[in-house]
From TrEMBL:
Cited SUPFAM superfamilies: ACT-like, Formate/glycerate dehydrogenase catalytic domain-like, NAD(P)-binding Rossmann-fold domains
Reactions performed catalytically: (R)-2-hydroxyglutarate + NAD(+) = 2-oxoglutarate + NADH + H(+); (2R)-3-phosphoglycerate + NAD(+) = 3-phosphooxypyruvate + NADH + H(+)
Pathway: Amino-acid biosynthesis; L-serine biosynthesis; L-serine from 3-phospho-D-glycerate: step 1/3
Function: Catalyzes the reversible oxidation of 3-phospho-D-glycerate to 3-phosphonooxypyruvate, the first step of the phosphorylated L-serine biosynthesis pathway. Also catalyzes the reversible oxidation of 2-hydroxyglutarate to 2-oxoglutarate.
Organism: Stenotrophobium rhamnosiphilum
Family note: Belongs to the D-isomer specific 2-hydroxyacid dehydrogenase family.
MF terms in GO: NAD binding; phosphoglycerate dehydrogenase activity
CDD domains assigned to the protein according to its UniProt record, in alphabetical order: ACT_3PGDH, PGDH_like_3
EC number(s) on file: 1.1.1.399, 1.1.1.95
Taxonomic lineage of the native organism: Bacteria, Pseudomonadati, Pseudomonadota, Gammaproteobacteria, Nevskiales
Protein name per the record: D-3-phosphoglycerate dehydrogenase
Length: 391
């Protein structure tokens, strides 16, 4: 029986992927094997040594101590692209709300009173305050052309916008998805200076903290709109508020309300709703639950943010050793020597690495005694060892 702890609400469609006869799933559970999480801040909680994997039902993993988990030999999985359409739609809403001054107009309508005649008159007199602009031929700069950025850029092209993108580490797969009408910016500054709208779709990292700052806001075109549906810290909020108040920035649409932004009529803030659609919640939960199950039951690694991709079919009757080790010479040599010394025959083997971590799957055609697993665990550089008994 595997025990799974949920730290946030996880869609029932995802939880149903974990069969009840083999999985116990609860918010409070002793010695869990794995955790399913959305935005709960795992930096602030003790992570039980029993935990073998963490599944983030979403994209960003800045709420998880990934480096610490790597040192413990624990893979962190996420759900790449599973909520990208939901975020794209909210970004498009932000662009339209900002361009047409909709929040201010809705506020005006809420405050209307008097009889219908008086209201109609106030509407016709007042609407000139909310004259907006249209999107075709307006420029949009997209920083980060990953799952979300590509969708935003492509949709904006379809709306007739002039779109530039910047991403120094774009994947080949994302490059294949990107509309050929999206132009390549040479740097963030180059992109900013060409853009009236800027949308950020990068993870929160040291390199992306404060990516949009006072200097870059000054480079933007007039009536600028910043869209931040990535993470609050990517945009320097104080600089944005200053530019909004000075009238040099038209609007800030973001998913991260704060006291500094509260009450500012040019701020369009949603309560971290980017991934909050039924479809996105289901997609993320299903994807990550499948990945956690494949890891716990077979040792396979798909879509981990700190482990290499490692998928090896498990032959019936084979016992599998899953070993996480430092990516240094002679680890596989020491592991296979330990098995040979104990007269265990290897039927299949996979060794993959990513950065400092290597992951080795070894299939053996006999049961592996606990003493052999312990011998391998004692090899210097081995971070974690798990035996998956033959089915
Ligand atoms: N508001 C919400 O509810 C949601 C927010 N997010 C946020 O959006 C972020 C992006 O999500 P995805 O597109 O799914 O991730 P992704 O991993 O598919 O794409 C991120 C892209 O950013 C690029 N990148 C990294 N550093 C960069 C830099 N300094 N300059 C330019 N590009 C850079 C990467 O090369 C990658 O292509 C997540 O990390 C998360 O923080 C994601 C989903 C929902
Ligand atoms: O689970 C959520 O609602 C947050 C989604 C998010 O921020 C992400 O996927 O990075």
């Amino acid at each position: 029986m595997f025990k799974i702890q949920t730290l946030n609400n996880i869609s029932v469609f995802g939880l149903e992927r974990l069969p009840r006869e083999r999985y116990e799933v609860a918010t409070e559970i002793q010695n869990p094997d794995a955790v399913l999480v959305r935005s709960a801040d795992m930096h602030k909680i003790e992570i039980n040594p029993s935990i073998k994997a963490i599944g983030r039902a979403g994209a960003g993993t800045n709420n998880i101590p990934v480096a610490k988990m790597s040192q413990r030999g624990v893979p962190v999985f996420n759900a790449p692209g599973a909520n990208a359409n939901a975020v794209k739609e909210l970004v498009l809403s932000g662009m339209l709300l900002a361009a047409r001054n909709i929040p201010q107009a809705l506020d005006f309508v809420k405050k209307l009173d008097g009889d219908d005649h008086a209201m109609h008159k106030a509407v016709e007199d007042g609407k000139k305050k909310f004259v907006g602009f249209e999107l075709p031929r307006r420029s949009l700069g997209v920083i980060g052309l990953g799952a979300i950025g590509v969708k935003v850029a492509n949709a904006a092209v379809e709306l007739g916008m002039d779109v530039h993108g910047f991403d120094p580490a774009m994947t080949v797969n994302n490059a294949w998805q990107l509309d050929s009408r999206v132009k390549q910016a040479l740097s963030v500054d180059d992109l900013v200076s060409k853009s009236q709208f800027i949308s950020v779709h990068v993870p929160l990292l040291d390199a992306t903290r404060g990516l949009i700052n006072a200097d870059r806001l000054k480079l933007m075109k007039k009536q600028g709109v910043i869209l931040n549906f990535a993470r609050a810290e990517i945009v320097d909020e104080a600089a944005v508020v200053e530019a909004l108040n000075a009238g040099t920035l038209h609007a800030y649409a973001c998913d991260f309300p704060s006291n500094a932004l509260k009450g500012n009529p040019r701020v369009i803030a949603t309560p971290h709703l980017g991934a909050s659609t039924g479809e996105a919640e289901d997609n993320c939960a299903v994807m990550v639950a499948d990945q956690i199950r494949d890891f716990l039951e077979v040792g396979n690694v798909r879509n981990s943010v700190n482990f290499p991709e490692a998928v090896l079919a498990l032959a019936p009757g084979a016992t599998r050793l899953c070993i996480v080790n430092a990516n240094v010479p002679n680890m596989v040599g020491q592991i296979t020597t330990a098995l040979a010394k104990n007269n265990l025959n290897i039927s299949d083997l996979l060794n993959k690495s990513r950065g400092d971590i290597a992951y080795t799957l070894v299939d053996v055609d006999a049961a592996i005694p606990e003493s052999v697993a312990q011998e391998i665990a004692a090899i210097q550089g081995v971070l974690a060892v798990r035996v998956i008994p033959a089915k």
